[in-house]
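Changelog entry: the non-specific serine/threonine protein kinase record was regenerated in this release. Current contents:
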Amino acid sequence: MLCNERFVMLLYDRTNPYMDVNEARKKHFAKRNSVQRIPPTYDALEQHMKRASALELGNSYCTRLMYACTTCPCKMPEFSALVLPLVVHAALRSDTIGRRDVLSCQFSSFFHHHVESVTSNTGGVQKGKEMVTNKAALQVMLNVVDFLRTQMPQKSFCGREKITPYEKNLWLKLNFLEVAQAAHYCGAHFSALLFLHLHCEGMQSAISEDIGVERCQEPPLTQVSSHPDAPSLTTLLLQVYSSLGDRAGVEGCVSSSRFVGTEARALCCHHRGQWIQSFALRDVASDTFGMVDGLRSLGFFNTVNAFLSNSPKFSEAQWEAAWRLGKWNDSSFEDRLVEDDVSRWDNKDDEKFHCSLYLALKSLHHQDLPSLHNHILTARRGIANKLKLNRVESSSFIYPFLSQLQMLSEVEAVSDCISCLNKFEQLNTCISRLTASWGRLDMKSGVAAVEHHYWEPVVAARVSMLQAVTTTCKIHQLKSLLHTTLLNKSELSREDGIKGGVGCEWAVAVAKLLDPSLPPPAAWLTKLEEAHVARKRGDVQLALRSLQPLIDQFQLQENMESRHEQVVCRGLTLYGGLLMDSRTRYPQSIIRDYFMRAVTMLEGSKEGDNTEVLEETYYQLASYGDQLYRQLHQHLESDAIQAKRSNIARSEEEVERLEGLARNCSDLTERKELARKLTILKKNILIDCNMLKDLEREKEDYLSLALNNYLKCLIVSEKHHLHIYRVVALWLQNLTLPRLNQMMDELGKRIKSCQFVPLLYQLVARLSCQRDQHTSFHKVLHNLLERMSVEHPHQSLPVVVALAHAHADDRIISAKSSRKHHNKVVEEDRVQAAKSLVAQLKKSAIREHVQEFEKVSMAYLSLANWCGTMDSKSHSGQQVKIDRAQPLLQLRDLCYTAALTRPLQIQPSAHYDPPLIQGWDSTCSLVGGINAPKRLTVKTSDGMKQFELLKGRDDLRQDAVMEQVFGIVNQLLAQNNETRERGLSVRTYQVVPLSQKSGLIQWCNNTQAFGEYLIGNNKSKGAHKLYHPKDYSSDVCRQKMMAAKEMSLEKRYDVFQDILEHFHPVFRHFFLEQYPSAHEWQRRQIAYTRSVATTSMVGYILGLGDRHVENILIDRSTAELIHIDLGIAFELGKVLPTPETVPFRMTQDMVDGLGVLGVSGGLRGDCEATLGVLRSCGEVLVTVVEVLRHDPLHTWTLSPQQVGRLQATGDDDSMGPVASASMAERVVLRVQQKLAGVEDGFPRTVSEQVAALLQQATDTANLSRLFPGWRPYV
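Regenerated structure tokens:
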């Protein structure tokens, strides 16, 4: 490049002495020369050279330039690597002399030699072929392949008339299995998965004749099992998924492939945390490396050290065991260091790191700071070198290096303490800084969000470095910090789901050794952690024995220091919980002696920082009270108690009969006998009645205990904010109890109203004007809703006003009608109560806001019922001018009302400053439908415009409740560690009912219907027509299903099989088209898989039906699914004329987007994780769903109009709208059964339930019975 610069400058000025074009430009500017005499900048010159090179590639100079780029790497390697993809692309694009075959041969040969070199057993690389294992060279070649995949060819490589986007992968004729091997070798795991996907597709095409239609629902990896490359494909897939730490991928490979050996099964057990099975399989396979890896994962480093003590070579595991065990003076390590010079090691960065860390910690132990810094520098260089030589695509690849860098930084931080041992003030400052720094990375902050195997080495290194220091320096503060770190290590290990607390015992045992040299609270904390560890293992008795001396010591101390009270209360709460688990004492005495004592101590404490302990104590007490309440409630509803009640009733009837006989009996002896029988019978009745009364009273006491402490927990903190759902459920289920209403009135006022906002629908559903019944409940509820409306008007007013305007549509239509006489609208009691609440709010501080919002709501309702110039010929997408007389167009620059369909975060401070509505566009768009929904454009004060869908003559209240459930599910998934790490969630959108028949829906931008991509808007084009032009069209498939509708099930099945044979899935191409880069492709496929899993499980629980291809949207930017039109729920699809026979949509195209593992891969694990959370938090969902049971306006069957719209049949006479309490009870009961895992009358585990649901959803026989309009073949 330097020669080129000099040449260019001489062209502009032969007398120019400069070698740098930028310096020459400055001088020419200073001389004020003309523009023509000023040379270009360096960047412009570089770009010009690149363009010139690319232009020359189509001519005869192409070969020369390629030769120059490949033969002069020493002179311009970066430029050669940069221009090579352009060179190859230009050569292929202007291919007139068979360059594609030549280049394909060369590239294939390179990747083939790489695979041979890597997989050979010779232990080295053949001479002259070192380049094929050079990671830098491999990355250059992979960059060429990646660049070509982004370029659309000018002609089809497959002889098609129309070029498909898939042909971007066919510029070179490559064996993608070998390319995937090279990508995996370079650490480009996402690229490896993409290339494996492409190779698997090629394998499917090669043996397509052997894959019958009966195997169409099998994962692609299973379908290609007869191909010669299948074993290699499976092996590499396992390696890639294992490198990514993808447990679901590993399990999917094992379950989908028929070429799974002992090592693969052992790897699967390893990822599941099934250590005994893993070690057994490793032993069978004589896999020493795997055994050592498992021991390291479990933290058995003494065993690792003993196991490898006689090994001729020191491995990475031994160096790690050395620094973890503190082998600072072991002679074997000294001898090893003499034999090898660590600084000269090549391609052993992992071993270099652990050895360098060991040497650094050893230097720390001996206080040799210069040597320590040298070893840290060596370790950092090794990390940088590995990052440079690998093709980083996944953040999971970087996490181990971030952990290592964090460890090195903390070693330096501890060394700062050593450097100032003789300076007391500086030493205290260093230790304080170190403690604060480590405190910011405790379990409750960033570390908790990182997986166990990333943060555990950091904590272990802290322990090792502190042990290295404290053995030579008797510094009390460092010993205290070591003790705290050990307990933190144990606590964090207990939280790990895979390893189940392995390593806790070692940390507790070492902490015990430090207890004698530390103040008393240290020993107490160690005992507490020891009890927690025993409880984690399920050994309740050992936990009780560990805590018993501590409890006895607490009881002997009368005047306890306030700083020790938190430890005491934690011990009392834990001991009480253990007694509850063991059931060795009566619950009342446990609550009195332990829980209440802890609460009393904390409430009377003068310490101001006991909020966390107090909140946890309240929560534990509330949980146990709730548990006892449920047990008693179930017992009182059991068959035994019902039989006892029946027996009491029969006994009372018998008493009446005997008393009648006694009155009419004249024989004295017989009267005495009757009197004796009556006495015994009455005593038995009294005993049974008193027992039932005691049980009811005890149940009410436990109910009050639970509700009281739940409320106090919510007052103290918002950590357990999800328990507000349980609070509301308990209150609404027992609204006749004055004690509970008084409790809600007194304590509810102290809870922030923002915590009640998510339950607005549930609370508003209980409004009533009938104050003669449950007077205290309605008063408390009214006051709560008024407070919520005043403090959070943007969330509350739409719900309250929508109920008050429930029948506003009828009045608007009646006012426009020419008829003089119309039916009078009868308002329900709840609607009148809502109007009363609105009237009360008009006298409050938000009266102007309420008045403005009512105007906006009525304006929306007027437009929703306006037809204007629309007629039957109006089509979707048509622009319509809104009548100027519409009230909505008269509203401008609103002062209080924000856009209703823009999500607004609830603010605990109750302070809101959202963008306000400035107006609406005067035109709207039609989106299709018999009720003429309109897409409006609303303008807000922040300068933004957004779309919103206004629907009239359509009840959106159920859609709103469904979206509320989706939002709650997202909260539950975010609370759980596993689902949070997986990133599971459900895509939601705003639904705002304006009345009983109208509402607003948030417009989902950058989305398209699932069917629009696959079969096009006209149902005969789309991706299916593009990739398989000879297949049946979607309309032909539907016609075939319609023709077979009245046939037998066997005939319908045969017809459906024929359709599947001539209608192949293509949705995998969506990801290749939309996301060409491997990283984005894998990321979006994972997002799609997670979205399918969550929506399927939630949809199953709620009985969501009518999931045809137009009711599912896909976000083109994220590949997530969005379900719309949620009106067919709670299994109403099963009562249609053609019943729905599947729990959710899992057709061949849905499965096609999941990758080579199909439903056996990540989908199954995501489904199990989602359903596990839903089942564990089932009561929250039931609380939300129960709002519909108390909604007198909700109908539990479909109207004839709905049936006609869904399935155009003539058999609708038997169906009509029914508001039935028994139907509502059935719906709630069915939801509870699903959440309990009850299917076909038998309870199932989560994995069994998911397996059964996936089998039902993908069963071809079930799909063949669906309504043709559902398009089960898509």
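The two ends are 57 Å apart (CA to CA).
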